[in-house]
Write a structure and sequence with these properties.
It is a single chain. The protein contains 10 helices and 10 strands. It is an alpha+beta fold. It is 46% helix and 25% strand. Helix 2 runs antiparallel to helix 3.
């Protein structure tokens, strides 16, 4: 399974979609949504929850999550900075929901999401902030919260940010340990425990994802793509790419 750290800069990102399927990732923003119709699955780390029409879901900062199994879906999504709501910023980073779903039946949540997404005019920023504040006020009153393991969360975030910044360079778990002042064994344990992957596997996943972008969007040769993505040889690139994507880089570009 692929995991990645998503770096976002916008205060508010809001959109509607008919497909919620998305690979495992984490970010510093909150991610909330409402299903107007259909169903899907949401996973927090390795625990799955069923989403049905009328449900709201809420992901706090730095929670590893993914979506799967979208069926006849119409979902509205809001991704926003924790600092957008200073009333709750400290809470957002110190706790997380015991379960991410608020089951259908709350008419107020439906009306708030409906107002934000089913209006013909673009809402002003302050109006959006007010609606999000109202949604979170209701949601927090309906959810049971648990305290974060701050050390584990901070360590994982530091590791993933380091990987995100340096995956195209010749890095190893030892260089990451030296840079982050974390023991090699602790990095390995954290990634295996929280992400179910190794440091090397994660770096290779980042490199393959980057190479896919380059193969799609540029005219770089396969050799140039391999080195630009961080692989030390074309042979290694071809082997790792084929294992993860089920085809060679050249076949991927043709398709």
């Amino acid at each position: 399974m692929r995991f990645f750290f998503e770096n976002r800069n916008d205060q508010i990102t809001a959109y509607m979609s008919d497909n919620l399927d998305f690979g495992a990732h984490l970010h510093e923003q909150l991610e909330i949504g409402f299903l107007f119709s259909g169903k899907a699955m949401i996973y927090i780390e390795d625990k799955g929850y069923e989403l049905n029409s009328g449900d709201m879901f809420c992901i706090f900062p730095n929670q590893i999550h993914r979506y799967d199994g979208s069926e006849e879906l119409l979902v509205c999504m809001i991704i926003f900075s924790a600092e957008l709501l200073p009333e709750y910023t400290k809470l957002f980073f110190s706790q997380h929901p015991a379960a991410p779903i608020i089951s259908s039946g709350n008419g107020c949540l439906f009306r708030l999401f409906d107002l934000m997404f089913r209006t013909e005019e673009e809402l002003p920023y302050e109006t959006k902030r007010g609606l999000i504040l109202a949604v979170m006020g209701i949601a927090l009153n309906s959810m049971r919260l648990e305290k974060n393991d701050r050390y584990t969360t901070s360590t994982l975030r530091s590791i993933l940010i380091y990987c995100d910044l340096h995956y195209s360079e010749p890095i190893t778990i030892n260089s990451a340990a030296d840079y982050l002042h974390i023991s090699r064994s602790h990095i390995a344990h954290t990634m295996r425990n929280k992400l179910n992957t190794s440091f090397g596997e994660y770096i290779n996943a980042k490199r393959v994802d980057r190479s896919c972008e380059l193969l799609k969007k540029t005219n770089m040769s396969v050799t140039e793509t391999a080195f630009a993505a961080g692989f030390d040889s074309v042979r290694t690139f071809n082997r790792v790419f084929a294992k993860r994507m089920g085809c060679s880089p050249r076949e991927f570009r043709k398709e």
